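Researcher: Structure for this, please.
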Amino acid sequence: MRKNVHLYAIAAAAVAIHVACITQYGIFRDELYYLACGEHLDWGYVDQPPLIALIAWTVRHLFADSLAGIRILAVLAHGALVILTGLLARRLGGSRFAETLAATCALIAPVTIATTHFLSMNAFEPLFWMGMVYVALTIFNGASEKRWMLFGAIAGLSLENKHTTLFFGFAFVIGLLLSEHRRTFLRPWIWIGGVIAVLLFLPNLIWEVRHDFATIELLQIIARSSKNTPVTPLSFFSGQILLMHPLTLPIWIIGIVWLLRTPRYRALGWCFIALFTLFVVMKGKVYYLSPAYPMLFAAGGIAIERWTASLRWVRVAVIVLLVIGGAIIAPLALPILPVETYIVYQRNLHLEPPRTESHRMGPLPQQYADMFGWREMAEKVASAYNTLTPAEKTKCAIFGQNYGQAGAIDYFGPALGLPKAISAHQNYFFWGPRNYTGEVMIVMDDDRETLETIFEDVQQAGIVHHPYAMPYENDNPIFICRRPKTSLRALWPKIRNWI
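Model: Predicted structure, token format:
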């Protein structure tokens, strides 16, 4: 317990920073969707495996609709990752300074701060990946190879969290084949671990088969679209520098070199290089690689610890510099500042988070803009809904063009007296039109000309606007539509929207 107190202190700092501003802005767009998925528990969804929906269901049953409660497990995941990163340094042979340095890097990495501030599968992914690495290190250090079964169990659960674990597993195998551990494949335990991973992943795989591999179809559609920003090797690498914090760059670069030069741990160095190459070739988003960095922080911390063995002042200076640098960039990843103050701060800092999608931007980056406007949108819809007669209300369907709009109605709607929403976007499409006939519908974010081809009577009932929301969610009309020309169930297969 005592030998870990420095790691607990850094982890507590990580959690405290999040808690201090956990409700500074509003609920995030994707959180609305995950909460909706939590109301439809299944073994898979169009755009994710099932674990995040189960987590959403759990936190909502524990904390109701409290925003702090919804986010608390993600916040605690940051604290846990800080500790795990320090423990990786210890497993690699480091002492107290190496552990502290590695944990501090995990504390200040902007992408880690950002992805653990709200409920998301990205908050838990580094824990799964580095949990596998920790188990592998115990085996590399002489523990029984039976532990590959534990590795496989973590891998299977990770696959139920996010499919990018497939890339990590592939890269890890490449790392083993290019290192002294290639003989591992001549013995049974790693294969048994693989079987365990497949068995744990099987329910989601069956869901994909039953839904015609909807996730693969979604990825193919996105690849053919212009939704994501173009990725080049240079833009991918420069994105890593900012996402992991520029001051950590020499640490993780040193970490790669140290791993490659250390035969026992060389597999991890090759694993990272393989992952980097895979994501560049496949034009993955810049943050896809971020769960792999803690092992580099740990390795880099060991190298720097050995170089500064007699230079205590250098060690202190390095930690202080990282903390100060982390504090400077933290507002870009964490909603510490009031909005107007943030806008001025970012402008003066001349930095902004790397963009992963090609949408037109407003005054805020997308990670913050997607936290604004949802309650106001639901209130506008409620105003339209309350103009209906009691008879119309009993059969009125509320249609959102995307899961953010539909999720906002599902989240804020009960307090406003609204029914559950429907949408043809991603997994909302599979949930169908519920029991609505379409006789009366409130439709968000559409145009009159299109709606008049579907309904006999179309009346605009409001418009949605929030100064900080994403532009594509702003100035969108709300229509009340009556007397459909075709039934909603007949229309449903034609309006599926995967992106």
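Researcher: Any notable elements?
Model: The mean pLDDT is 95. DSSP finds 24 helices and five strands in the chain.
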